[in-house]
Specification:
- This protein is an alpha+beta fold.
- The protein folds into 3 domains: 142 residues, Triger factor/SurA peptide-binding fold; 101 residues, Chitinase A, domain 3 (Roll); 98 residues, Roll (Chitinase A, domain 3).
- It has 15 helices and 11 strands.
- The strands form 3 sheets. It has a 4-stranded antiparallel beta sheet with strand order 8-3-10-9.
- A hairpin with a 2-residue loop joins strand 1 and strand 2.
- The longest helix has 27 residues.
- The N terminus is likely disordered.
């Protein structure tokens, strides 16, 4: 399961951040311009906040560290936009389904770190539905940048002598390595069954007929819409640019004329009715009613029974890999047979999986593990002890660190060249 370079953690006082950054008016305005891309101060503020939470920095006492973190975050965003500028010229693309999966994984990690959806909403000051919409274009850009980096640095390797030299130079500063578990998983996502979906479709159809018949869209949205971020505003989402909505929603939103009401629109969030209120250049202001099918107890029981059937069909490691390719809903790992790679159970973003890994026997599949998003079946391939790294005990980890250092050197050289040909303006840099 792919993890993204955004960090999250426990809840702390947001007031402290407002005080810390109020002198710079960090919430509004432009932080940097990179070619055709703009980095907003609000983007920097949110990422600083989320990273500080993970690092357990308190805005009341760690002001200097937070100021340094702000500079690091902004430079990281500038670097990503530089990569994106070149990647767009090279026509690097990712599929919408990959972005959808990335958003859901990122959301799951964020909720896990925050403790609950309510706590995450409290930390970031936005509804879950708003976060999904906000993160979609951002994660799309990140995936494109990562794909281009893979092409740019994919040919870099390290020799045995280079790994040995790296270890000898840095062994006193490498710290300790945790015990790692080489595992795979099959993910069976919770989803509403046919009956639950039919109930929601029927409700959406009836609401559309009421709107077409003359009833007020805004009042029906306030009463029925299950998007809490917009329902209180009569379903209105405000002016947004292209790329803000998920593709299925956006295609319809930009095809409608002002005042026109759509037919039923299905997205991963549920069923929508959309009305365009106003078009301003490439921006559109729409309102919608969202009805999300609920996963019933019967749906959960059916999925658990299916997950148990899959688990009982696993006799060998090859069985697990084949069934992961056929049945797993994690598109980032299924083609690799569900491989998660080497993970640290104590820091794994899904707590339930981390706990089971600690007690799982090598070579045997776990029973279905219930999480808020569905059911996971785990398979433990190997366990590698932790401690201070040596060439004998942690060769692969040292090889990875040496490779990362070599890639970093090439990236810095590439970055210097790219910066000279692309306009970059950092408005937060200290003069």
């Amino acid at each position: 399961m792919k993890k993204f370079n955004r960090t999250r953690g426990f809840f702390f006082l947001l007031v402290g951040f407002s005080v810390l950054f109020s002198g710079q008016n960090l919430i509004d305005g432009v932080a940097a311009i990179v070619g055709q891309h703009v980095i907003l101060k609000s983007d920097v503020a949110q990422l600083v906040q989320m990273t500080a939470v993970e690092r357990r920095l308190d805005p009341r006492f760690d002001i200097e560290k937070l100021e340094q973190l702000q500079e690091q975050v902004l430079q990281s965003l500038i670097n990503q936009k530089l990569i994106l500028e070149i990647a767009e010229v090279e026509s690097i693309e990712v599929e919408d389904r990959e972005v959808d999966q990335a958003v859901e994984q990122y959301l799951a990690q964020s909720v896990s770190q925050a403790g609950s959806e309510e706590q995450l909403e409290k930390i970031l000051g936005k509804r879950i539905s708003e976060l999904r919409r906000m993160w979609w274009p951002d994660l799309r850009e990140q995936l494109i940048a990562e794909r281009y980096q893979g092409q740019l640095f994919g040919d870099i390797t390290v020799t045995r002598d280079e790994v040995v030299a790296f270890y000898n130079n840095y062994k006193d500063s490498l710290g300790t390595i945790p015990t790692l578990y080489n595992a795979s998983h099959i993910f069976i996502k919770s989803r509403p069954g046919g009956k639950s979906r039919a109930v929601s479709r029927n409700l959406v159809d009836s609401l559309r007929q009421r709107i077409v018949g003359g009833e007020d869209f805004a009042q029906l949205a306030e009463q029925f819409s299950q998007d809490p971020g917009s329902a209180r505003s009569g379903g209105e989402l405000g002016f947004v640019n292209r790329g803000t909505f998920v593709p299925a929603f956006e295609r319809v939103a930009y095809a409608l004329s002002p005042g026109e009401v759509s037919d039923l629109v299905e997205t991963e969030f549920g069923y929508h009715i959309i009305e365009v209120l106003e078009v301003l250049g490439d921006k559109v202001n729409v309102r919608h009613i969202l009805i999300s099918p609920k996963v019933s107890t019967a749906d959960e029981d059916s999925l658990y029974a299916f997950a148990s059937f899959v688990r009982d069909s696993i006799k060998t490691e090859e069985d697990f890999s084949r069934l992961a390719k056929n049945h797993s809903d994690d598109i980032s790992t299924k083609e690799a047979g569900g491989r998660l790679g080497w993970v640290d159970p104590n820091t794994f973003p899904i707590e339930e999986i981390g706990k089971v890994l600690l007690s799982l026997e090598v070579g045997l599949p776990s029973p279905p593990i219930t999480t808020k998003d569905g059911f996971h079946i785990l398979f433990l391939h190997e366990v590698k002890g932790g401690g201070s790294p040596t060439l004998e005990t942690h060769w692969s980890e040292l090889e990875g660190l040496a490779l990362a250092r070599k890639k970093g050197r090439r990236f810095n050289a590439w970055l210097k060249e790219a910066s000279s040909s692309i306009y970059v303006e950092n408005f937060l840099i200290k003069k």
